[in-house]
Amino acid sequence: METLNQPLVVTDLHKRYGGREVVAGISFALARGECFGLLGPNGAGKTTTLRCCLGLTGPDSGSISLVGEPIPARAREARARIGVVPQFDNLDPDFTAAENLLVFGRYFGIDDAAIRARIPRLLDFAGLSSKANAQIRELSGGMKRRLTLARALINDPDLLVLDEPTTGLDPQARHLIWERLQGLLAEGKTILLTTHFMEEAERLCHRLAIMDEGRIISEGTPQALIAEHIPVSPSPLRPSNLEDVFLKLTGHELRD
Length: 256
Ligand SMILES: Nc1ncnc2c1ncn2[C@@H]1O[C@H](COP(=O)(O)OP(=O)(O)OP(=O)(O)O)[C@@H](O)[C@H]1O
Ligand SMILES: [Mg+2]
Description:
Blueprint (H helix, E strand, L loop, with lengths): L1 H4 L2 E10 L2 E11 L4 E5 L6 H8 L7 E6 L2 E3 L3 H5 L2 E4 L11 H11 L4 H14 L15 H12 L6 E5 L7 H16 L3 E5 L3 H7 L2 E6 L2 E6 L1 H8 L12 H9 L6
Parallel strand pairs: 3-8, 3-9, 6-7, 7-8
Antiparallel strand pairs: 1-2, 1-4, 4-5, 9-10
Bound molecules: adenosine-5'-triphosphate (ATP) and magnesium ion (MG).
The site of magnesium ion has 4 residues, from helix 2.
């Protein structure tokens, strides 16, 4: 069935803020079990696209099917079955790390015993076993990021939507998260992620879409994008990579 094999289908999505179209007619679909990366410079429209897909902001036009549910009409039902890491952490400062997982699980209607049984494994997943009883203000930025990722797994989702999951992490923590995400993919989970780390995209993503000014300007496997756009390395000292592709397609100017 189409919806089972395509946990997310986005067709001709448009979103305007003020007078500006920040998502200008994009279409893409995720196949079950794949990691799909959305790349693009600051302001390209990645987070807005994800927020539309999650039903957190209403699109102006276009259609979205998320785990088989029409968005925004049945966004709440769909969100209960997926895991989300927003670009900016929104942990509850009034609770400890473990309590944040508990409270979030309750929000999905999972009973306390089942959540408590999952908490040690999720904290271990994020390398935070020793921080179970720490207050959120006592955690570093990278620890909060990892806790947010652990929280996204509380409902054992088949689809994860991760907006810059490793921004702010040190290299050790980033490698830990890459390993963990590869483990989730090996279990058959589907991942949609945004990242500014080209190495992360190359390692994790089966397919990528590069966005600029609200449009997808190129799409394919990392290898295919490199072969298509940078067939000859700009440096004799190393092979071409995804960063070369990104800069060629989106330019060297800072975005405002
Ligand atoms: N709530 C909002 N109101 C008005 N403009 C917004 C709003 N949210 C986003 N924008 C604008 O929409 C554009 C796209 O923003 P978006 O956050 O989707 O970009 P992004 O690709 O996620 O960028 P980054 O890599 O910096 O996270 C930007 O120009 C931004 O200023
Ligand atoms: Mg963003």
